[in-house]
Structure formats: C-alpha cells, structure tokens
Amino acid sequence: MINAVLAGDRVRLRPVRAEDEAALQAVFSDPSVAVWWGDPARSVRDALNPDEGESGFVIEAGGEPIGFIQCVEETDPTYLHAGIDLAVRADRQGQGFGPEAIRVLARHLFTERGHHRLTIDPSAGNRHAIEAYRRVGFQTVGVMRRYEHGPTGEWRDGLLMDLLEGELT
Ligand SMILES: CC(C)(COP(=O)(O)OP(=O)(O)OC[C@H]1O[C@@H](n2cnc3c(N)ncnc32)[C@H](O)[C@@H]1OP(=O)(O)O)[C@@H](O)C(=O)NCCC(=O)NCCS
Fold first, then answer.
1. What is the CA radius of gyration of the chain?
2. 94 lines ligand 1 (CB under 6 A)
3. Does the C-beta of 110 come closer than 6 Å to ligand 1?
C-alpha cells in the first residue's frame, strides 16, 4: 500500500482516512459517477477498506476533496504493473482535474514503485473517460466483451487501455 501524499500543480493526492466517508459519498452518489462506478454505498465502503495491493487517495484541489483515485499493484515480477481507477465529483468534472490526478499518480508509480506499465479499463461507452485517458497518453489495447455489470444488471463491454513508461503526456 502506498502511504504517501503526492502533489501536483493543482491537485494533491492523500491517503483515504475514515473521516472521508461524507466526502466520498458526495463523489460516488452523483448519477454521473454512479452510472459507471455502480452502487455508491459499496463504492464508499470499498474506498474506506482497500483490498490487499490497493491504494486509495482523496483528490484535493484548493484544500477541498474533489474526487477519489486508486491504484492496484500487481507485484508478481513476471506481470508487474498497476491498474488505475478514479472518479471526480460532478461539479468538478471537465476541468482537467482527473487527468492531472492520473499524471501525479502515474509518475509516482513509474519513478518510486518501479512500474513500467499501467492499465485502465473504462466502460467502452464512457466517452468522456476514454478521451481523458487518451489525453494522458493511454492507448487502446482492445475491447473486453461483457466485462462488467451495469447498474441495471446488464453486461457491458470494457475497454482495456495501457500506458508504458515514457508515454505519459
Ligand atoms: C472521467 C473523469 C475521471 C475525467 O476527469 P475530468 O477531470 O472530468 O477530465 P477532463 O476535464 O479532461 O474532461 C474529460 C472529458 O469529459 C468532459 N466532461 C467531463 N465532465 C463533464 C460534464 N459534467 N459535463 C460535460 N462534459 C464533461 C470534458 O468536456 C472532456 O470532454 P472532451 O474530452 O470531449 O473534451 C471524470 O469526468 C469522472 O469522474 N467522470 C465520472 C466517473 C467516471 O466516469 N469515472 C471513470 C471510470 S473509468
């Protein structure tokens, strides 16, 4: 688990604390986030109780919590990589905070944690997210068919994207 505060120009990523429950609820409960992340109560619970290998951060801008970003590290040397996922609060979307948070975390994963490859797996229909990830340098690997359960129980395709060290923009 990464227990560090990571700073960028406009955003600061700091490890999630128990007192972040209300701030996380504000991020995950908006329909623009819940449509992709699923049940808000479960998202909050998972963010507060990371699994083995997961590190979760509150994204802060101007000292205020505006989102959540996490990474899952695969440490088996044969398959070494880290996956990233994030959500920005509805009123702060579309202002470049998400891509900046990814850049800050990605830089840390490359330079401090020894990774050479990062992945991200948005829903294939999440156009805004896919554009934001392309802007940071992620490339499409391919479509993972019927990859995730959508909020109304249907299976949705996911898009596997990856980013190699040196490709971060
Ligand atoms: C996807 C997400 C992380 C991107 O972060 P961001 O800070 O919004 O990224 P950007 O500012 O670069 O905006 C990305 C795109 O979304 C658009 N956008 C984002 N929020 C918007 C909103 N509320 N209304 C209209 N457009 C919006 C931006 O205009 C931009 O579109 P473009 O690429 O066509 O120009 C963030 O929008 C988000 O959390 N969305 C909801 C949850 C989600 O989809 N999480 C990702 C799961 S994989």
1. 15
2. yes
3. no
Which three-class secondary structure string do you get for the chain? CCCCCEECCCEEEEECCHHHHHHHHHHHCCHHHHHHHCCHHHHHHHHHCCCCCEEEEEEEECCEEEEEEEEEEECCHHHCEEEEEEEECHHHCCCCHHHHHHHHHHHHHHHCCCCCEEEECCECCCHHHHHHHHHHCCEEEEEEEEEEECCCCCEEEEEEEEEECCCCC
User: What is the bridge-based pairing of β-strands 81-88 and 139-149?
Assistant: unpaired
pTM of full prediction above 0.90: yes
Question: What is the Å distance from ligand 1's center to 76 Cα?
Answer: 32
- How confident is the prediction along the chain (169 residues), in pLDDT tens digits per residue? 999 999 999 999 999 999 999 999 999 999 999 999 999 999 999 999 999 999 999 999 999 999 999 999 999 999 999 999 999 999 999 999 999 999 999 999 999 999 999 999 999 999 999 999 999 999 999 999 999 998 888 999 999 999 999 999 9
Task: Write down all domains in the chain, each with its CATH number in brackets.
Answer: 6-164 (3.40.630.30)
The reply to whether ligand 1 has any atom less than 6 angstroms from the CB of 25 is no
